[in-house]
Amino acid sequence: NLTVHFQSARQVAGDFYDVFVLGDGKRLGLVLADVCDKGVGAALFMVLFRSLLRANLILGFEQQEDQDVDPGQMLVEAVDKTNRYIATNHARASMFATLFVAVVGQDDDDLCYLNCGHDAPVLKRDSGEIERLRPGSPAIGMFADLEFNYSHIAMHRGDSVVAFTDGVTDARSSEDKPFGELRLLSVLTEGGTLQWRLEKLERAISTHIQKADQFDDITWLGIERTG
């Protein structure tokens, strides 16, 4: 079960998410990222980051004859190629992106991910236990020679992961108070389905902001293992 939400602060945005099939169709690629700055410049680089990541991941899995390859290595190669291209060819722009990218198996319990300087997604086990998928790699786009590290987690039936951009926690009220991570976690750690919790999160943020101007793009991507 996959749930996404995107609400731009302006007519164009720097946040983006993407979901696509990989290789033999038994894996999904998931991407959530936040490009620095706002406005047209950030939006243009958002398109570049998104296109390169998608192309590098899809082509990497298509060219891989060994279907038993560790998807983590494929993630590292795709992110490294994307980072090197932008850092080498667009160095003067000084643009970077924080990034959470994952590969999830449809026929197994494995979720492999890279967190490049991004807010730590929330893993909620069916038992109620909470884990955070904290950054193990730097943000991409600024320096060509970076080291990327991937991790694996097992997602069993009833487990869910929610990745979000900082526009969620930074959402401001009319009194200029942020929504905050504690309020976010209080919703994400409740019982109920992933869809129910994220619908409640959307209502909570809307109530918090009310008539205030939206401070930043608000984006999240959630996946729940249902079978």
Describe the structure.
This protein has 227 residues and is an alpha+beta fold. 31% of the residues lie in helices and 27% in strands. The protein has helices at residues 39-62, 71-89, 166-169, 181-188, 194-209, and strands at residues 2-7, 15-22, 27-35, 97-105, 110-116, 122-124, 130-132, 151-154, 160-164, 218-224. The strands form 2 sheets. It has a 5-stranded antiparallel β-sheet with strand order 1-10-9-6-7. The longest helix has 24 residues, at 39-62. The relative contact order is 0.19.
Feature tags:
227 residues; alpha+beta; five-stranded antiparallel beta sheet; 5 helices
Poorly predicted regions are: none
Sheet of most strands? 5 strands, antiparallel
Please indicate the percent range of residues in DSSP E strands (runs of 2 or more): 25-35%
Number of strands: 10
Distance between the termini: 9 Å
Give the overall shape, derived from the CA principal axes.
globular
Helix content, binned percent: 25-40%
Cα Rg: 17 Å
Largest beta sheet: strand ordering:
1-10-9-6-7
What's the helix-strand series? Answer: EEEHHEEEEEEHHHE
Structural class: alpha+beta
Question: Count of DSSP helices?
Answer: 5
What is the average per-residue confidence, as pLDDT, rounded to a whole number?
A: 90
Q: What is the fold's blueprint, element by element?
A:
Blueprint (H helix, E strand, L loop, with lengths): L1 E6 L7 E8 L4 E9 L3 H24 L8 H19 L7 E9 L4 E7 L5 E3 L5 E3 L18 E4 L5 E5 L1 H4 L11 H8 L5 H16 L8 E7 L3
Antiparallel strand pairs: 1-10, 2-3, 3-4, 4-5, 5-8, 6-7, 6-9, 9-10
Helix pairs in contact: 1-2
